[in-house]
Amino acid sequence: MLKWKRLLVSLMALSLVGMLAACGGGGKPGGANGETAGAGNASGAGGDGQIKLRMMWWGSQERHEATLAALELYTKNHPNITFEPEYSGMDGYLDKLSTQAAAKNAPDIIQLDPGWAPDWAGRNQLSPLDSVDVAKIDPKLLAGGQKDGTQYAVPLGSVAFGLIYDKAALDKLGIKNPENGWTWDEFFALAKEFKGKLPSGQYFTKDYAANYFMYSAYQYSKGKGTVISDDGKFNVDQESFLEWTKRFEELRKEGLVPPADVNSSDKEFDPQMDLMVAGKILFRYSFSNNYGAWDSLKPGAYALVTMPRAEEAGGWLKPSMYLAVSENSKYKEEAEKFIDWFVNDPEAAAILKTSRGLPVNKDNAAALEESMSEVDKVGMGLLRATEQDGQTWTAGPGGWTNYIDKDWPLVHDQLSFNKITPEEAFEQLKEAALAYE
Fold first, then answer.
1. What stretches of 14-76 adopt beta strand conformation (E)?
2. CA torsion 154→156→161→162, rounded to 10°?
């Protein structure tokens, strides 16, 4: 299955940076209890027994607000525990976290992409979570956070990978909305339907010519397996890759995807820089739990649909993200108790809702579904539709982060700027993979 791999970047290559900036919406990092995030030790305690836990995560404004509210509740119930939150968008998150880890100053509690967890545990950067109750969590979701039978990271939610689109714009243009189970042929045919109908400066979708995740969905749907094999080998199917990149080359020539400079300016969830929120694109990939974040930026405008398919489904289910405790934390026991509460407590679940996907605790998930808002039901619809025959996520082999995060974007940019051909792009990716095999 798809290697949703975003493993740890090379620590030696990073220079020391400050704490994470505020989220893209313009808010500043702040504490749930009046604390202000800033440089300092991994955690702190005063002589009065007060303990301050640093917690770091990425996400949308909706996730930030829900998380801060949960931290406030925890402090209310545990007055000796306060928090120093550090939060941002996804861009640059891993680099900043890696920098702090290299300086042995990682936060006590860290949010990890599922693809990073094996490498962090393998480098002994995470503390075992022996006391976290995982009895009501699906073992398939737990597996990616384990090493040698020990749980080092706990999943927070289950999400589906699909597409979000500007339903209001399609309705205004009189174009039929896509339906779950649609195909890639229908996807590209729909793009052509917009030709001549879009106003200047508006496009069908982003230029995904060599986007690792979108192409992975395409190759998987073709029944050609994963882009990187389980044993760590280059496995890009040449026929599928050329077919995909040439289709986007055609969309580029017809003005149905943004010019390269516009395409590269996109910043997800940023009210000004997100190309879909700005009305510049009509389709982009999304996870089921992110619907509420986009809806909050433009209420009622968007809808979700399954990732297009071919011989097999294109979308997949995966753990949304993990929480872990840094091995360098001075307060591992307190941090672990907090994670247990964050994952299993019904009051926490009522605050967090689906900001990180459908809760992994089965009882909390069932209770949430009973009182789910109309917005959350949209995300749930994508999850349920993908469950039917969607792909199963796997962390895959280690050591390929730079290949995914650096080599693929480099090739993509060259394609987007028409500097290389699809054939040359394939050869570049194949050659670059040699350094990781």
1. 43-45, 51-58
2. 180
Q: Which residues contact 221 (CB under 8 A, 6 or more apart)?
A: 184, 307, 308, 309, 310, 311, 312, 313, 314
Question: Kindly report the CA angle at 246 between 413 and 314, in degrees rounded to 5?
Answer: 90
At 215-260, the pLDDT tens digits run: 999 999 999 999 999 889 999 999 999 999 999 999 999 999 999 9
Give burial (CB, 10 Å; 0-12/13-18/19+) of 254. Answer: middle
The predicted-structure confidence for 100-135, as pLDDT tens digits, reads as follows 999 999 999 999 998 888 889 989 999 999 999 999
In DSSP terms, 408 is beta-bridged to none
Task: Report pTM.
Answer: 0.77
Q: How would you classify the pairing of strands 322-325 and 153-155?
A: antiparallel
Whole-angstrom Cα distance, residue 346 to residue 144? 24
Residue type, 268: E
* Token pair of 178 as six digits: 């896509």
Name 4's Cβ contacts closer than 8 Å, sequence gap at least 6: 113, 114, 115, 213, 318, 393, 394, 395, 396
Element containing residue 387 per DSSP (H, E): helix 374-387
Q: Is 420 exposed, middle or buried (0-12, 13-18, 19+ CB in 10 A)?
A: middle
Q: What is the CA radius of gyration of the chain?
A: 21
